[in-house]
Amino acid sequence: MADNKNNSLPGSSKDNPDHDSETNPVSKENSSLSTIVRRFKDSVSLGKTHKFWESQPVGQFKDIGDSNLPEGPIEPPTLLSEVKQEPYNLPSQYEWTTCDMESDETCREVYDLLKCNYVEDDENMFRFNYSQEFLTWALRPPGYYRSWHIGVRAKSSKKLVAFITGVPARIRVRDEVVKMAEINFLCVHKKLRSKRLAPVMIKEVTRRVHLENIWQAAYTAGVVLPTPITTCQYWHRSLNPKKLIDVGFSRLGARMTMSRTIKLYKLPDSPATPGFRNMELRDVPAVTRLLRNYLSQFVVAPDFDENDVEHWLLPTENVVDSYLVESPETHEITDFCSFYTLPSSILGNQNHSTLKAAYSYYNVSTKTPLLQLMNDALIVAKQKDFDVFNALDVMHNESFLKELKFGPGDGQLHYYLYNYRIRHALRPSELGLVLL
Fold it and tell me: How many Å apart are CA 145 and CA 297, to the nearest integer?
């Protein structure tokens, strides 16, 4: 159960067609599982095995294509009395701590650890910079367990040096709704990367999840582990092309000038769709119905109820923005779009310190064409001073990416399930789940 989005920071886009993506661990053309398996076998012959993951109940590379294996849990639940009651042992100079995300002081410590040590792009130009408000939102959904917010402190200084979290979720896989933990924010201080803390942290969060009688998990990583259920590509839409080029996020295209580039990405001043407005509390039941109906078509998707929709999708300043289309005639809610705010620190640039990025979240189109709905989302994101709008090619996103001038980035995201086997890898368009 790990989230380690190593090298999956979408901030390393060079969103022009001349960009050479050969540096990708798994480039767009090669993201089929057969290629991943071949690379895995090549790496094994070089002695690079995934010792930890090969000991875990996850899909194994050797089993790919074995149609005799059943879908569903890989190992049955054990009796709760048989779950290890004591935390796993850490190296002697460190101790476990449970991070109370309701405490401003603790939240600040977590923020500082992630800000300085979390995911960077391959070229060390950008680093995720989750805000404290975002962390509070991400880690305190309905029914969350404080015990799943796990830190490691240095015994002598009490400094927080590592962190991993889980939050509860109901995720539907085909027709089965499964209680799971979504694992995220695995972060170890840069100076402690050689201490092998990550495997023991993963085992500890797994143990605490098991204590709540939950036996499955979902997580993402920017690296290939045994075995992705799907591999998604990040795409980027410039909103502030001059700044993106200035900080090295994008490059000026061949035969393009700055003024032509700015003109290329220019957007209208206001949304085009009649009845396009902010989502409000009173819209929660209608949005829940819309979303549940839409998500039912995907193989893997969250099973949202009204409490989840209120928490995850009701607009929160600088965290999540949600808009809907209310028919001016019938007042029916027909369409919905949303994005969350995840800035990145810009490392080593004298003029700019923060890249403000919007990430496409859940979008539902029934009456308004998705292309038009997402163009309106780009317009409101631009009005809110976002520099770039990022989207994965999940759900129906692929239908608007090229048309709306998104370019493919370097970042890829592999999705995983813990202790749950899906016999065949999914296409990104079969996935209805966005993990933060």
Answer: 30
List domains and CATH numbers for the chain: 52-224 (3.40.630.30), 231-430 (3.40.630.170)
Which residues of the chain register pLDDT less than 50? 2-8, 11-31, 36, 38-48
For the segment 180-200, what is each residue's pLDDT rounded down to a tens digit? 999 999 999 999 998 989 999
Report pLDDT for 10: 52
Give catalytic status of residue 436 as yes or no: yes
Are residues 180 and 60 in contact, defined by beta-carbon separation less than 8 angstroms? no
State the DSSP code for 299: S
Residue 185 amino acid letter: F
Coil, helix or strand at residue 361: coil
How many Å apart are CA 220 and CA 313, to the nearest integer? 21
Catalytic member of 291, 401, 431, 436 = 436
Query: What is residue 211's DSSP assignment?
Result: H
Instruction: With CA atoms as reference, report the closest residue to 304 among 249, 246, 361, 357.
Output: 361
The answer to whether residues 235 and 393 touch, using CB atoms and an 8 Å cutoff, is yes
Q: 192-229 b/e with 16+ CB inside 10 Å = b?
A: beebebbebbbbbbbbbbbebebbbbbbbbbebbbbbb
Task: List, for residues 222-237, the tens digit of each pLDDT value.
Answer: 998 989 999 999 999 9
Per-residue pLDDT at 164: 98
- Write out the two tokens for 381: 């994101």
Amino acid (one-letter) located at 296: S
pTM: 0.90
Q: What is the 3-state secondary structure (H, E, C) of 57-111?
A: CCCCHHHCCCCCCCCECCCCCCCHHHCCCCCCCCCCCEEEEECCCCCHHHHHHHH
